[in-house]
Amino acid sequence: MKAQIAVLPGDGIGPEVCAEGVKALKAIAQRFSHEFEFRIAPIGGAAIDATGTALPDATLQLCESSDAILLGAVGGPKWSDPKASVRPEQGLLRLRQALGLFANLRPVKPHPSAIQFAPIKPEILAGVDLIVVRELTGGVYFGERTRTETSATDLCRYEVFEIERIVRAAAHLALARRKKLTQIDKANVLETSRLWREVTTRVIAQEFPEITLEHQLVDSAAMLLISRPSSFDVIVTENMFGDILTDEASMLAGSLGLLPSASLGNGKRGLFEPIHGSAPDIAGRGIANPIATIASCAMLLRHSLDLQSEAAHLEAAISHVLVHGPRTGDLAGTGSTSDVGAAVVAAVLA
Questions:
Q1: CA angle, 322 as apex, 26 and 303 as ends, to 5°?
Q2: Fold for domain 1-117+255-350?
Q3: DSSP H helices in the chain
Q4: Which one is catalytic: 109, 129, 179, 247?
C-alpha cells in the first residue's frame, strides 16, 4: 500500500526518537513491500521559534492531508514562561481539536524483561494488561478561562455526545479484550463527573450489555493502579484525570521510555506519540529510549493504516530487542538511541 505520514519531531528528544521511528517504519515498508512517504513539519517550541506560532497553518494542512501523524514531543524550559501568550502545548491541543482526535489510547502491558526496573514489586505487576482511554478534546483543558490579579478560573464542561462517543470507543476495545470497563470520575463532588457516570451507565446498559461496568472515584483509582493494577482491563475517563492517571500507570511498565499512545477520532487518521515528554535534560545526548516511539509506530500501522500483521511484526521486533538488547540507560543498558533503533530495524528485516 501507499501512505503519507506526517512527521512532527517537535522539541527536546522529539527529533531523536522520531528519527528512529521513521527508520522502523521504513524497515516495515521494505519488508512488506509498502510505500511510505514521510513529510516533516514543525510543531511546539520549534515552530514558535520558526514562525511565531505553535502550530503553523502549513503543519496543520499537512496533517489534514496525511494518512497518519507521528509526533515526538513538545515543550521545554526555553518556552516555559507561564505568562507567555504562545506556548508549545497550545500547538498540540489545537492539532487534536482540529483533527477531531477525541480518544487517546494508552496501553500498559509490562514487558517481562523490564519488570525489574519498575519501582513496584514484581508480584504486583504479574498479569497487568490494561488500556486507558482518555477523552482528549473536552473538559477543563478546553474550557473558558479567566484571570485577574486576585483570582483565576478554568471551566470544566462536557456535552453528553462527547461522553457517549468516548465510552463507545472504550467499550469496543473492551469487547475485544476481557469485557470489563472501569469508568473513573469524581462523582461525589463534581457535577460533570455525575454526568459522566450517568451517561456511561446508560450507554453500556443499552448498547453493550455483555460488558461488566464498574465506577471508581479518581483518588481510589490512583491507589488501586499501584496496589492491584491487574484488576483493570479498559479504563475510560475525562481529559484531566486521564492525563494524570496515565503518567502514574507508566510506572507499571518500568520506564516512561516504553509506552506508546494513539489519539484517534471517527476516521482512520490518528496522531501517534510516546507518552514521555521532551526531556530537555537529555536532549542531544543520544541516550533517549526510542522504544515508546517505535511502539507508537506499531499503533500507527494497526489503527490508521490497518496493517495488522505489520504492526504485530514490529511489536515482535521490539520484544526481541528488549530481551536481547541493546538497551538504553533507563533500562540499565549502555546502548544509544540509534543503537536501539538499529537493533529494531535489524529484527524487522531478519
A1: 45
A2: Isopropylmalate Dehydrogenase (3.40.718)
A3: 14-32, 45-51, 57-65, 88-98, 122-125, 160-175, 191-207, 218-227, 239-249, 291-303, 308-324, 337-349
A4: 247
- Tell me, what's the pLDDT at 254? 83
Is-catalytic flag, 339?
no
Domains 1-117+255-350 and 119-129+137-252 share a fold: yes
Catalytic one among 49, 78, 219, 306? 219
Catalytic residue among 26, 179, 180, 186: 186
Q: How confident is the model at residue 167 (pLDDT cuts 50, 70, 90)?
A: very high
| Dihedral sign computed on CA atoms, order 161, 239, 193, 177 | positive
Whether residue 11 lies in the annotated active site: no
CATH code: domain 119-129+137-252 is: 3.40.718.10
Task: Tell me which residue of 340, 228, 242 sits closest to 295, measured CA to CA.
Answer: 340
Other beta carbons within 10 Å of 38: 17
pLDDT-derived band at 265 (thresholds 50, 70, 90) equals: very high
Chain segment 70-122, per-residue pLDDT in tens: 999 999 999 988 778 899 999 999 999 999 999 999 999 998 888 888 889 99
26 is catalytic: no
141 is catalytic: yes
What is the predicted pLDDT for the residue at 33?
A: 98
Q: Cα 200 from chain centroid?
A: 23
pLDDT tens-place string over residues 220-248: 999 999 999 999 999 999 999 999 999 89
Grid cell for residue 170: 472504550
Of how many residues is the chain composed?
350
- The Cα 160–Cα 3 span in angstroms is 35
Q: For the chain, give the percent of residues with pLDDT over 90.
A: 92
- The H or E element that residue 84 is part of is none
End-to-end CA gap in the chain = 21
Measured CA to CA, the distance from residue 46 to residue 53 in angstroms comes to 9
User: Is position 109 annotated as part of the catalytic site?
Assistant: no
Active-site option among 141, 158, 233, 330 = 141
